[in-house]
Amino acid sequence: MFKRIITLFSLALFALAPLGAARAQQGQRLNLIRDAEIENTIRTLAVPIWRAARLDPNAIEIMIVQDHSLNAFVAGGQRIFINTGLIMRTETPNQLIGVMAHESGHIAGGHLARMQEELRSLSTLQILEAILGAGAMAGGALSGGGVGRGGGGSTTGAGGPRAPGSLMSFLHYTQTQESAADQAAINYLQRTGQSPKGTIDFLRILQREERLQINRRDPYLTTHPLTPERISAFEQAAARSPYVNTPDTPQNLHMHHRMVAKLMGFITPDAALARFAEADRSVPARYARAIAWYRKGALGSALLGIDGLIKEYPNDPYFHEVRGQMLYENGRATEGVASYRKAAQLLPSSGLIKIDFARALLATNTTDNDREAVRNLELASQQEPDSFDLWRMMAEGYSKLNNPGMTSLARAEMAALRGNKSEAATHADAATRQLQAGTPAWQRAQDLKAYINTRPSGRR
Predict the structure, then answer these.
(1) Does residue 193 surpass a pLDDT of 70?
(2) Which residues, 6 or more positions from 305, have their beta carbon under 8 angstroms from its beta carbon?
(3) Which domain holds residue 61?
């Protein structure tokens, strides 16, 4: 299910992504989207890069931010945040792969940990004045790696007083990091036999966007090298690369076009219907139209479109998943269950699809479906242990099945994810009393109690 999760960054993230933290201080939020197909597409495109960077693909999280700006950044360890605006503006998979290669360079280079040291010499006010004072775009980053525009400028403008020496030193340091990440990206593309042309093309898109901005960047007060300098570096790499004319594979092109079409259908349905006219009978176009009609409330047209795709591609799990979402969100959960069940059967490795399947099952209010929902949630918890929705539904399911011990354990997990230690401890204590001693669930409650007692408040 393509769904939006509203999350508020804590100030603890400041040392990793100061601008994101600044937004949190101001009460603003990042809209995080979860979608099995989009996440799997990005991972498929990025895995060769991660392996070239000697990173463990299983350790990297993809976080999709619903934001129109062209940006991606790394924060909170091995989490790559990527804006929907950036994804939808990429024209080829090679362009998106170049962005992922840059962000992977930050992770492999340990830039986040090093940036914490650099930030300790600066006050919060110094950084916010330099970054926010110039009207930097939201998300554009001191994050240990935004591919988009970094901040920059004193509060008095490019001609005004310069920043303190410590801040100038820090900005020079971040520019060095960004150049290192670009060089790493060039190396990863070379090792995986991919062209640097996509990165050049995307940087040119970024450059055109920059020229539309009223406030020009001060080259002395920016976290990134100037875009023309970055383009030049990749052009030099392209001149040396034996893979410069290597095309995207048909599979990558198909996945990328579907992903962009899906995002447009969900986020900008009117634009999707304008771009993908009825005369366009390609799969991405038909997919975009079906989703756009659903988003505009025309369920009949939406189902007609998605059913046509399913008839031609009966083993595509994502078409069945979208059909289940269309029905569930229009009050037809019982019909949606069949589509979700098919999607889960076709893609048993997806925890997200199991969670959405369970949501539809619980909405039918039958004991058998409640049991099936809990079974799917238990399986999904191995892949999505930090999903608040999962534990909330687990608590609901076990409550409906009159299992107070497992209900308390699920509520303890929910409270721990929220960072509410006292509530988590209360529910974990209840679970240890209600569950049979020695069982895996009882042991989990014991482990959770110990974990809560040794960790500061916050996300696990």
Answers:
(1) yes
(2) 286, 287, 289, 290, 293
(3) 3-249
Please answer whether residues 303 and 326 qualify as being in contact, where contact means their C-beta atoms are separated by less than 8 angstroms. yes
- The pTM for the full model equals 0.81
Strands 79-83 and 61-65: parallel
**CB-side neighbour CA atoms (13 Å) of 29:** 8
- Residue 127 in any domain: the answer is yes
Say which residue the tokens 């993809």 belong to: 62
3-state secondary structure of 245: coil
Q: What are the tokens at 175?
A: 């520019």
Q: Write down the number of H helices and E strands in the chain.
A: 21, 5
Residue 278, pLDDT score: 94
C-alpha 326, offset from chain centre: 22
**pLDDT tens digits, one per residue of 35-48:** 999 999 999 999 99
Pick the more confident residue, 218 or 330. Answer: 330
**SS3 per-residue string spanning 53-80:** CCCCHHHCEEEEECCCCCCEEEECCCEE
Residue 175 in any domain: the answer is yes
Q: Answer yes or no: are the C-beta atoms of 344 and 364 closer than 8 Å.
A: no
- The confidence band for 452, taking pLDDT boundaries of 50, 70 and 90, is confident
DSSP 15: G
Domain count, the chain: 1
Give the type of residue at 354.
Answer: K
> Angle between the 388-400 and 351-363 helix axes, to the nearest 10 degrees?
40
Q: Is residue 79 part of a domain?
A: yes
Q: Is 110 a member of any domain?
A: yes
144 pLDDT above the threshold of 90: no
DSSP for 390-453, please give it.
Answer: HHHHHHHHHHHTT-HHHHHHHHHHHHHHHT-HHHHHHHHHHHHHHSPTTSHHHHHHHHHHHHHH
Integer Cα distance of 445 and 423 in angstroms = 13
